[in-house]
Amino acid sequence: MLIDEAYIIISAGKGGNGFVAFFPGKKSGPCGGDGGNGGNVYIKVNRNMTSLAQYAGKHKIEADDGGNGGSFNKTGENGEDLVLEFPLGTEFVETGTKKLIQLPSDDRLILVCQGGRGGFGNDHFKSSVNRTPKRAEKGHPGETRTFKVIMKLIADVGFIGLPNAGKSSLLNELTAASARVAPYPFTTLEPNLGSLDRIIIADIPGLIEGASSGKGLGIRFLKHIEKVKLLLHCVAADEDTKQMIKNYKTVRKELTAYSTTLATKKEIILLTKSDLVLPSERTAKLKSFKKLNSLVYCVSIYDLEALGKVTQIIKES
Ligand SMILES: Nc1nc2c(ncn2[C@@H]2O[C@H](COP(=O)(O)OP(=O)(O)OP(=O)(O)O)[C@@H](O)[C@H]2O)c(=O)[nH]1
Ligand SMILES: [Mg+2]
């Protein structure tokens, strides 16, 4: 399932407590050190992320607390800062205030929760009127904020095709995605996203004849690929050419019924599972499809050269 929303509770670290101590012997002045500061929490983009899966379920995330102060004016250690990474374009809405934070698209860190300041040790409180203060401050609490996180990743390239055409298998080969693959239709029920050199590829559920009027899983998933620059139309090559062309036209018809904008996008046809077809047949199939669209290639998940070609096409899109 595509996890594109999450709730997270983020807490910065608490400051360490200040310490009460005195130098030994006659000198006997205060020497209690300050507590260290609590760790801050920052957010930052990670362009290879394509899901909020790691934040699924209500998630409590806490930075380290600062260490307590010690004797001989030893300051406590600062708590380590935490940097949380999110996919490009993620938005954060603070629950309660409804304040919106947009994730920067460059590598900037945004501070979302400030760590608590360390408490002062008793040395801090010495004065001309009180040379032996016995009080120290407790560490200050870190900020805690709750956010609704909304992923707004926009796909650059979209896989389309009938169910079982091998779309998810290709996504898995080309990216680090691990979409479910199975030898039957409708394996993919929700869009899968993958990133190839920061290019976001969407694999959507298969379309069937009548999808635009609600058959199969319908066509509502097409909204995830409305903004793509390139469509990769997968047609399984392990059928006779006539059937393959019929399959291709079925998907085109449903695409057009959904949106003419989508139907006029640049399309490349991939004749998938070509390892199941003899080389001579492959050539004949390519020739037939070239009459429909000159941009057609044979591909198989077992053919590294063909996968390399598809990678190149995507990078150049
Ligand atoms: N021999 C061979 N089998 C493949 C290839 N690509 C995919 N398959 C098999 O084809 C079947 C369907 O693959 P999927 O990737 O699940 O197909 P899909 O288009 O995502 O299917 P839906 O999610 O149902 O729309 C699986 O059994 C895959 O192992 C290929 O290049 N060669
Ligand atoms: Mg699939």
From TrEMBL:
<dbReference type="GO" id="GO:0042254">
    <property type="term" value="P:ribosome biogenesis"/>
</dbReference>
<keyword id="KW-0378">Hydrolase</keyword>
<keyword id="KW-0547">Nucleotide-binding</keyword>
<dbReference type="InterPro" id="IPR014100">
    <property type="entry name" value="GTP-bd_Obg/CgtA"/>
</dbReference>
<dbReference type="InterPro" id="IPR045086">
    <property type="entry name" value="OBG_GTPase"/>
</dbReference>
<feature type="domain" description="Obg">
    <location>
        <begin position="1"/>
        <end position="154"/>
    </location>
</feature>
<feature type="binding site">
    <location>
        <begin position="186"/>
        <end position="190"/>
    </location>
    <ligand>
        <name>GTP</name>
    </ligand>
</feature>
<comment type="function">
    <text>An essential GTPase which binds GTP, GDP and possibly (p)ppGpp with moderate affinity, with high nucleotide exchange rates and a fairly low GTP hydrolysis rate. Plays a role in control of the cell cycle, stress response, ribosome biogenesis and in those bacteria that undergo differentiation, in morphogenesis control.</text>
</comment>
<feature type="binding site">
    <location>
        <begin position="161"/>
        <end position="168"/>
    </location>
    <ligand>
        <name>GTP</name>
    </ligand>
</feature>
<feature type="binding site">
    <location>
        <begin position="272"/>
        <end position="275"/>
    </location>
    <ligand>
        <name>GTP</name>
    </ligand>
</feature>
<dbReference type="GO" id="GO:0005525">
    <property type="term" value="F:GTP binding"/>
</dbReference>
<comment type="similarity">
    <text>Belongs to the TRAFAC class OBG-HflX-like GTPase superfamily. OBG GTPase family.</text>
</comment>
<feature type="domain" description="OBG-type G">
    <location>
        <begin position="155"/>
        <end position="317"/>
    </location>
</feature>
<dbReference type="Pfam" id="PF01018">
    <property type="entry name" value="GTP1_OBG"/>
</dbReference>
<feature type="binding site">
    <location>
        <position position="168"/>
    </location>
    <ligand>
        <name>Mg(2+)</name>
    </ligand>
</feature>
<dbReference type="GO" id="GO:0005737">
    <property type="term" value="C:cytoplasm"/>
</dbReference>
<feature type="binding site">
    <location>
        <begin position="203"/>
        <end position="206"/>
    </location>
    <ligand>
        <name>GTP</name>
    </ligand>
</feature>
<comment type="subunit">
    <text>Monomer.</text>
</comment>
<dbReference type="InterPro" id="IPR027417">
    <property type="entry name" value="P-loop_NTPase"/>
</dbReference>
<dbReference type="InterPro" id="IPR031167">
    <property type="entry name" value="G_OBG"/>
</dbReference>
<dbReference type="InterPro" id="IPR036726">
    <property type="entry name" value="GTP1_OBG_dom_sf"/>
</dbReference>
<dbReference type="InterPro" id="IPR006073">
    <property type="entry name" value="GTP-bd"/>
</dbReference>
<dbReference type="GO" id="GO:0003924">
    <property type="term" value="F:GTPase activity"/>
</dbReference>
<dbReference type="GO" id="GO:0000287">
    <property type="term" value="F:magnesium ion binding"/>
</dbReference>
<dbReference type="InterPro" id="IPR006169">
    <property type="entry name" value="GTP1_OBG_dom"/>
</dbReference>
<keyword id="KW-0342">GTP-binding</keyword>
<dbReference type="Pfam" id="PF01926">
    <property type="entry name" value="MMR_HSR1"/>
</dbReference>
<keyword id="KW-0479">Metal-binding</keyword>
<keyword id="KW-0963">Cytoplasm</keyword>
<keyword id="KW-0460">Magnesium</keyword>
<feature type="binding site">
    <location>
        <position position="188"/>
    </location>
    <ligand>
        <name>Mg(2+)</name>
    </ligand>
</feature>
<feature type="binding site">
    <location>
        <begin position="300"/>
        <end position="302"/>
    </location>
    <ligand>
        <name>GTP</name>
    </ligand>
</feature>
<protein>
    <recommendedName>
        <fullName>GTPase Obg</fullName>
        <ecNumber>3.6.5.-</ecNumber>
    </recommendedName>
</protein>
<dbReference type="InterPro" id="IPR006074">
    <property type="entry name" value="GTP1-OBG_CS"/>
</dbReference>
